[in-house]
Write a structure and sequence with these properties.
Strand content: under 5%
Order of helices and strands: HH
Distance between the termini: 38 Å
Helix content: 55-70%
Amino acid sequence: MSKKKNLRRLSVLITAQTMGNLEKLADMEGCGSTGRVIDKLVRDRMLALRLGCKWEGGGRR
């Protein structure tokens, strides 16, 4: 039995250059899916923002 995941569908309009870069990142990571690359980039960015706020002395939360 497979575990249900909290997933949503998203349609994104991007340039050809961005698509090429997403495909390169997917190949480098070995995941094969550009959606997973987008998900990882967003997670990394949100973590960086959260850590940045703590270092600045409690900015936005």
